[in-house]
Amino acid sequence: MTNNHDNLPVAEPIADPGHPEHHWRPTDVDDKAEKRAERQVSTFFVLSMISAVAFCVAYFTIEPEDTFMGLGAMNVALGLALGFAMLFIGIGVIQWARKLMGDQEISELRHSAASSEEDREATLAALAQGLEESGIARRPMIRNTLLGALALAGVPLIVGLRDLGPLPGKKLEKTIWRAGTRIVNDVTGRWIRPSDLEVGQLVNAEPEGLVENLDPRTNPEDLEARGVEVLHGHELIAEKAKSAVILVRIEPKDLSEATDNWGHEGILCYSKICTHMGCPIALWEQQTHHLLCPCHQSTFDLADKGRVVFGPATRALPQLPIEVDRDGFLAARSGFLEPVGPSYWERNAPSYWKDREPK
Ligand code: FES
Fold first, then answer.
1. Whose CA is closest to atom 4 on ligand 1?
2. Which spans does this entry mark as compositional bias, Basic and acidic residues (predicted)?
3. Is 10 part of any domain?
4. Which residues of the chain have pLDDT under 70?
């Protein structure tokens, strides 16, 4: 046969090759082989359950500092146990499909995207047939062990949540700031006098009592008399993270009355921890009195109680009430009257909003 225009041969349609001959598997024709395959598949699911239980046992019994061939023993054990739990489920499912599920090939003609009522019914029938051929209804041992394996495979993930650590409880509510705690420059480690700050200046600071930043003039007896506890190690790191503050000096005439009342001659002290997601803030716009968080651009007005003027933060920056102590240094008049930093579920309890004036 040729093409009318240029005498090229016209391609013949490819003949439908049909399906290859179907070979029955031993499990299709031999009841014993079928039962044997069923037990094999269930064995893999049981092995998966054992691996998941082994994960939990390893998690609770191996010490984090134990080693195995130079590696962390706990990590090796958890990795292997979880890996085997998943692997055995995978092998079991593959064996089930290869040996027990129906393996006859079928042809289906293409049709329009929208299914007719008959097609839907045919699909449901095919689905039911598939379920029937998979034997899930007839093989309760496989079904039950698979369900058990899948259920236990999730347990290691739940157990792993314990690594998020204990709930913080009341630890987020308080800092070591209390009445009389002196404010220390976090670079020089020295107490700060009002005369150290000029109008428009911002200083990063922290509470005295952090061992790495004790003012060189510190007298241990005086420290004790003022009730200041010196922190080391983990406690020091935790306090450093949540007690950081900034000191700014603004013309008193530019301050709202409530802001001025908690400061000293225009010197104000605010938490340095953003109330959005906890970034440390220190981008200071002297002219507008705005403090900008570099993470998501929340902007706080330090001349007006740390009010949010822009960005995703929803709470004002907590202000620390300050005064000048008998030795002429800037010190807290009380601790923060609300928890610093980002919100958390328990944070907005009404009790935080009582007694909002320093004693
Ligand atoms: S952490 Fe400050 S704006 Fe998001």
1. 296
2. 18-33
3. no
4. 1-8, 111, 346-359
**Which residues have C-beta within 8 Å of that of residue 78, sequence separation ≥ 6?**
55, 58, 59, 156
CATH of the domain at 265: 2.102.10.10
248 and 276 in a common domain: yes
139 alpha carbon – ligand 1 mean position (Å): 56
pLDDT tens for each residue of 314-358? 999 999 999 999 999 999 999 998 889 988 776 655 555 455 666
> How far is CA 78 from each of CA 64, 67, 84, 148, rounded to the nearest angstrom?
11, 13, 10, 20
91 and 155, same domain (yes or no): yes
Sign of CA dihedral 138, 144, 145, 146: positive
Separation of alpha carbons 24 and 29, rounded Å? 7
In-domain check, residue 9: no
Q: Is 123 within a domain?
A: no
> C-alpha distances in angstroms, 316 versus 117, 181, 271, 303, 332?
61, 23, 10, 12, 19
Q: Which of 246, 272, 275, 279 to mutate to test the pocket of ligand 1 (most atoms within 8 A of CB)?
A: 279
Q: Beta strands 319-320 and 267-271: pairing type?
A: antiparallel
What residue ranges line ligand 1, CB within 6 angstroms? 274, 276-277, 279, 293, 295-296, 298, 311-313
Same domain, 160 and 174: no
Task: Count the domains in the chain.
Answer: 2
pLDDT tens digits, 192-241:
999 999 999 999 999 998 877 888 888 888 888 888 888 888 888 888 88
Atom of ligand 1 nearest to the CA of 293: 2
